[in-house]
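Suppose you are handed a protein chain with no further information: no name, no annotation, nothing but its sequence. What can you learn? This example shows the usual starting point.
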Amino acid sequence: MLLPACATWAAAWMAVGAPDVGIAGWMPAAVLWVLALAVAGALGWPLLDRRGRARAGGDPPPAGPRDGSSPRRRARITAVAATLLVVLACAALTATSAAAGLVERSRSPLAAAAEARSTVDVVIEATTAPRPMRAAVWAADEPMVRVDGVVVSVDGLPASGVPVTVGVSASTDVEWGARLAFSARAQALPAGEATAFRLVSPDRVAPVAGPPPWLAWASELRRGFAGAAAALDGDGGALVPGLAIGDTSAVGAELDAAMKASSLTHLTAVSGANCAIVTAAAFGLAAACGLGRRTRVVVALVALGGFVVLVTPQASVIRAAAMAVVILIGVATSRRAGGASALSVAVVLLLSHDPWLARDYGFALSAAATAGLLLLAAPLARRLSDVMPTPLAIVLAVPVAAQLACQPVLILLDPAISVYGVAANLLAAPAAPVGTVVGMLGCLVLPLLPSVGFALMQVAWVPATWIALVAHGAAGLPGGRLPWLPDAPGALVLVAATAVGLWLLLDPRGGRGLRRGAAGLLVLLVAVPIGVVAGPAAVARAAHPGEWDVADCDVGQGDAVIVRSEGAIALFDTGPDPAALERCLEFLGIERIDLLVLTHWDADHVAGSDAVVGMVQTVVHGPLDDERSSRVLDPLVTGGAEPVEVTAGRRGVLGDSRWSVLWPPPHTAPGNDASVVLELEGRLGSAIFLGDLGEQAQARLLASASLGPVDLVKVAHHGSADQSERLYETLSPTVGVIGVGADNGYGHPTGRLLGLLDRLGTATVRSDRSGTSLLSATGDGAFRLWTERGIGDVAPRP
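A reasonable first move is to predict its three-dimensional structure. Written in structure tokens, the prediction is:
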């Protein structure tokens, strides 16, 4: 079943990205079905021919040398043809499912609303628990969460359940199965995305129905468990819900980064181990009660279903649950269900039901890790036992097998290899099962016996704290990330290197010359990608510091300022030249932009936006300006960005920083004085970005907003003389960043502005003299400054 599973995955991956939903969209499925029928006919024809001869009284042709075949050879040919038939049928089934799903998306009323850019009234049913957003915009003074769901109705009419996503206020009472009603605009997402539409700018989100009873109990249990875990101290308390039920909402940014760096995030993702514990416990309890085999299977299935409801159906959960169901059905029917076959059948069934899972990284990592354990752990343990004690070999083989299988997928997410991942998993492995089992028991017991449940959670806190310590320790070691080629080429090279390495390790056969050649190939497959990537990266690291908070890109006469907060990236304007912005982004290693702020529509602020098409998650902008704004926004939206028009009062989050829009007021005409002015507070202290606001608009801003001293200001209008002295005196910034081109012809920055900053004791950072500059906050209001022409410190004014 491994071949059909791989073929199904490949067919699903290609089919969901089909750009045409017409007749051409059905062609891959039709071709696969025709091929499957042809193979089925080739398999069935000899049998029909023999039966026809028998009914006619003739003898079948003798087997043997006359027809050039033998029974054994015919059996091999039949087996190959039967396998090919299953492969084609599975691939055709999932291609058909994908084509039908794409047609359903194209016929949804949301498709017409997205094309017309109109607002519709929708009712959706949540299919996941709310999740925090890395970069979000909201109108009130509270954070936003992301909710995935399916459409129930559009403008009061029933609609097919196409998948959608929407950002809502964190205070909205929403759980899996709840229904929400609101007005919003629809934005169509690329065909390959699991979500068909993004609903933007929702208005007055109102819960219209709670979860059904068979889901509501789990919501209350999760909420109570999370509340009790909040009383536990430190990172251990944050990890207990993750180990027990996969709830990582309490995991902070620092701990999350440490878990990722040490390859321990899988411990807080519910997977096969959790499902195996639940089903085995239920099966064993039913056996202890004297129930029959099939009754025990039913009890285990019910327990498994309840566990899936409790942890919510994440990609790794449904993979593990489907595999467990296949194994339990095999037990019920007295048929042995091997692990690899069960995994393959589960993959085929799930991808046939939802082909978009083929592009889900969580599903891919879960399936890859399981396949690695099933196919590689035992051979690795046997080979390692030749050089170490068998128990140690078994313990070491498990994380190595999982890491080898998952690493090509991880390369697609982050082009680097975790050097200490295996060691961290070895150290954390003894603690993980204890934390998981005891934590789950605490979750179940807590509503019935609160004291006992909390005591169990305190016990689970001990292994959880140990895991957190291991994560921080591994993440703090030098050289923890080995850079690798990015994207599909990097993954394919790593697959080839892994295959060659495993052959050398596990297969002692082969001539000395062949093994030497394979060893040389392995060295090349590893050394070349590392050299290609690490060489330039090492030069870049030597050229500029790896840790920085604000980057002022040298894009000529224009603005392009980057802010980094806990890994989230914001870009303020894009400058006049896409090539110049692209050079800066490549120099800093930026491949994703969570928040793009377009202050206004002048070319020196937005003409470089082509460089970031396809990289942006959210675009914040001021009042639209007909074709000028459409030329910039349309490609960004097509590339997957969500546009949000803002006025004073809008707020948002970027990593661990908060931001608020101070200007423009509503109904402001587009132009320099309608520039989006944004204030940001976080690790870098406080900063304000003034766009191209002129003196009169700056005076009105000062009168309308509550302003005080800031650590950094993006100087308005490239340092022109059109500035409000009172505004800068009120801000009293430590650093003033000026985006300006050398010999710009405007006289920017002017002597008036530079004299004003000098009187205030503000250090100026100018792109015309410094080139690209990086500022790193030191935490005491001062900055460490690196520029292309030197480094230094910027201290706050006494």
